[in-house]
Structure formats: structure tokens, C-alpha cells
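Q: Could you write out the predicted structure for this multi-component system? I'm mainly interested in how the pieces pack against one another.
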Amino acid sequence: MANIRDIRRRIRSAGNIQQITRAMKFVSAARLRKAQERVIAARPYARRMTEVLESLAARVPEHSHPLLARRGDETIELVVITADRGLCGAYNTNIIRRALEFLNEHSGRKVELNILGKRARDFFRRRPYAVRHEAVGVLQQPTFADAAAIARDLIEEFSSGRKDQVWLVYNEFKSVVRQEVVVEPLLPIPRIESADEAGRLEYIYDEPPERIFARLLPRHVEAQVFRAMLEAAASEQGARMAAMEAATNNAAEMIEGLTLYANKVRQAGITNELIEVVSGASR
Amino acid sequence: MALPDTIHLEVVTPDRQVFSGDVDAVVVPARQGYMGILPGHAPLLAELGIGEISIRAGDGTDYMFCSWGFLEVLPGRVVLLAQTAEMASDIDVKRAEEAKVRAEKMLASTDPGTDFRGAELALMQAISRLNAAHRLVRKPRP
């Protein structure tokens, strides 16, 4: 039978851990709310941007812009967005696993990585993959300036012809409980559906539509990268909150089980002592 | 067909929606010069430059700073997709003044490596910000 003092010590340490996990849960809940607000605040721009693009696409001949050029898939850049920190369940592992799957699927091609987040950086650093660019600390509070800088670098890489395709792998934020890892093509820009209703409108153009279209496309790519970063940031907090909630519950369960055990041990001890006293007296 | 009295204006930037509401008229800094839009305007697509937006609604006028982006006019609706946009009341005057001084210094330098174009744009942005902010002070809403 275990020593009662050891059990008490374990109860105490489980209690200490529970305090920490509970605190972390509340911190991520607060951060999640802010991250969610940012995701929602960024939506009107992305939506309007898509609308304008769609109405323009109806008027501008396709493939007339370098960012729409389809060249095959010989050289690919994969942008992997993970968190900077751990303790968020399987969040980082899932993204890295999906990235590895992508690398396996394209093993015959030349794939270079573009890493955002410390977790992926540390993982791929120790492995033989080509990493072209890495950035950490940009996901705590994604700013559009950061996203635009990353997007411009990707656009340059693509339009210079060094890369035929650019893909994103990140965690999409569906809801607090539902998140999923997605792999999306970023460049060449996937086919833009031309709008029907807006397509019928007769526009006045302040400048040639081709030129406006050409200027809009890079902004569109920037907005896509920004959205992915915002979604990733929100997902990270959501995943951490869920993980810490589970850890807090597990600690509670453990404390309960250990307390029960401790009481049994204590009772057994008392019974033993009684037996000793009784048997001593009867002699 | 009678023209509508107001037009719905939306100003959005990548990270948030800055303005949304029905207005009587709006003047925006298009790339080719300032452009006034009244209710019933024909569909239009233009690029935005750097400057001030004036929004007339009711008997008051509000001002805004914006730089770069796009302007779309649809039936009954104006959408401004701006790179940056700030309500005049939100403009940090001190910061804009500092930026102005910094840009002027750069423009005055004789170093051939200076990014004159960048400095010029920075100066334009600072001046437009200050103009928008000062207009609000000069002409308070009645």
C-alpha cells in the first residue's frame, strides 16, 4: 500500500497544475474573443474585394495578368502557418502533418517552404527540407503590414518565374469547437468567377479596366494572406482553450481519484493500528 | 424616375470597416483628381489616391483621410476599398506632424540614395491627414 504522504503530494501537484491550466484557459478565451473580432472585422474588405474582382473579371480577358499565369507545377512554394507556442493540443501537429503529406504528394517536384510560426520552424529546421523564408512572432496579433510584406515576397517569387505555384496550409477557423486544416492554392490566383448581375451593369471607368484589374490582383493576394493569418491566430487560441479545458478537467478527475485512494489508504492504516492495539491488549 | 435622396457609403480597410451609412454626398480623392458622388450616380470604378474624403450627411460634414485603394459605385451604393482610412477625429495629429517633418527632411537631403518618391508620398499622406484633421476643427458639426 502506497505511502499516504506521497499520495497527498500528488494531489497537491495535480491541484497546482490545474490552477495553471485553468488560468491559461481564461487567457486564451480572452485572446480568442479578440482574435475572432479581428477575423470578423476583416471580412467586409475581403468580401467587397471579391465582388469588385468578380465584376471586373467579366470584362477583362482572362490570363492577361502575370498573377493568373498557369505554368505547371515544377517548382512549388508551400506556406506553412503554425503557432509560435505549444500547449494547444494537436493544433501544430495537425498542420505539420498535413504539410508533410503535401511534401510527400509532391516528392517529384521541387518544393520550398515558407514558414510562419516558431513551431513549424523548429520542426523543419531539424529535417532535410528546403526552407526559403521563415518568420516568427507575426501571429500573436497579425497586422496587415506584416501580411502585405509576406504577400509581396510571394508575389515576387511567383512572378519572377522561380515558382510555378504557391500554396497555403493553415488552420481555418470555423467555430470555437470546429477547426480544420486546409491546403489552398494562393498563386496563380484561382479562377475568378465573373458575376452575372454586376456583369450586366455598364460601368464608367476612371482608368482602363485592365489597369485597375492589374492593380487589384496583388491587393487580393495580400488580403488572402492576411485572412489566413487571422484565421490561424483565432484557431490557435481556440485550440489552446479547448486543450486547457480538457487538461483542467483531467486534473479534477485525477484529484478526485487520488483523494478517494488517499482516504482508503488512511482508513486501512487506522484499521491496521486498531488491530495492533486490540491484539496487543488481548495478550 | 426620381433620383434617390441618399446613397449608402461603405469605407473598408483590410482590417476593419471604417464607415458605413447613408449619406447625401461624398467627395473622394480618385487617382485622377477629386470626384464628387451624389445619389443616383452611374456605376463607376476608379482608383483612389491620397487625400481627404468629405462626407455630407444631413446638415453636417465629416472628414476622413484615406490613401490608395479602389472606389466602386453601384446603384445606390458606394464602396471604398482603401489601403488606409481614418476618420478625422481618429487622426493622431502629433504623429502626422512628426511624419511631415521627417519627410521634409528626407526631401531636403542631398544624398542620392534617398528614396525621394517614398518621402514625397509620405509627405502627401502626412499633409492630407493634417488637412482632414484640421478641417474638422475649423468646421465643427452644427
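A: Regarding packing and overall arrangement: The mean pLDDT of chain B is 86.
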